[in-house]
Design goal:
Length: 265
């Protein structure tokens, strides 16, 4: 039986609504109408069930309090949104870093390819000479000159060396030595290189010259410090008034050993 006032379901034999206290069925009695009216009036109001005092019957469903659940649901929704935003940002950041790494990797790869291409074009080899070795050669020559009682002008000290119209290193750099220089009587291809990192047969890393007067004549001793087939050698020329300078390997073992020691250090 449902209450006509609040709609609450009650037992079929219930007289009053268990929720609001409304009478559910009319009073059935053989008592005369006047007595019925009297009974109604005499019924105490205190016994009328109140909405709050009426106990809940066993098995009747309890209406949830939606007002208390609303803040909790809102809090959960906010937490889900915050977590979702954090996860989304994390994956976006990872994606950006991945793209950046790929670009960096591609750039490095292109640079390496370019470097390899340039090296292949120039016939690059492991460097056999360096600025520090050039400085060591300068110190060695200063000591060696005192032993020889000679004074040399060397490219290792930042000077140009001139020998009867030939200027080092400019002439070698500009390929102007053709027809003017031979090695052991044969034409040779010289390449001036401060690092000796090419595959040229004769790589010149330094030159020195000593001008003096001997028996009334001007004379110049010129040295070329070279890597001949990747091995250190000192070539010397003592031509006088010659348009072609023939270089041979020096017989001065102190000079040869000094240069080789620096080169192989």
């Amino acid at each position: 039986m449902f209450c006509p006032n609040c709609g609450t379901k009650n037992d079929s034999d219930a007289v009053f609504c268990s929720n609001c206290g409304t009478r559910l069925t009319p009073v059935t009695s053989t008592t005369p109408p006047t007595e019925q009216r009297s009974t109604r009036v005499a019924q105490p109001t205190a016994t009328t069930p109140s909405r709050t005092a009426q106990p809940q019957k066993k098995g009747q469903p309890h209406k949830p309090n939606n007002t208390k659940r609303t803040p909790i649901l809102i809090g959960i929704l906010i937490a889900v949104l915050v977590i979702g935003a954090g996860v989304g940002y994390y994956f976006y950041h990872q994606h950006q870093e991945s793209d950046s790494s790929q670009v960096s990797s591609m750039s490095s790869s292109q640079s390496a390819t370019t470097s390899t291409s340039e090296s292949s074009t120039s016939g690059s080899e492991p460097a056999l000479w360096s600025a520090s070795k050039n400085s060591d050669l300068s110190s060695f020559m200063a000591s060696w000159e005192q032993t020889m009682n000679q004074s040399y002008l060397g490219t290792y000290d930042g000077h140009s060396v001139e020998d009867d119209g030939i200027t080092f290193p400019a002439d070698i750099k500009n390929n102007q030595y053709q027809g003017k220089i031979t090695i052991d009587g044969s034409d040779a291809t010289l390449k001036w290189t401060p690092n000796a990192d090419t595959d040229a047969e004769y790589q010149v890393v330094a030159a020195a010259a000593y001008s003096h007067v001997e028996n009334g004549s001007d004379k110049m001793i010129a040295y070329l410090y070279v890597f001949h087939n990747q091995q250190p050698e000192v070539l010397v020329s003592q031509d006088v008034d010659s348009t072609v300078h023939n270089f041979t390997q020096t017989e001065n073992q102190d000079l040869q050993r000094g240069f080789a020691k620096i080169a192989n250090n």
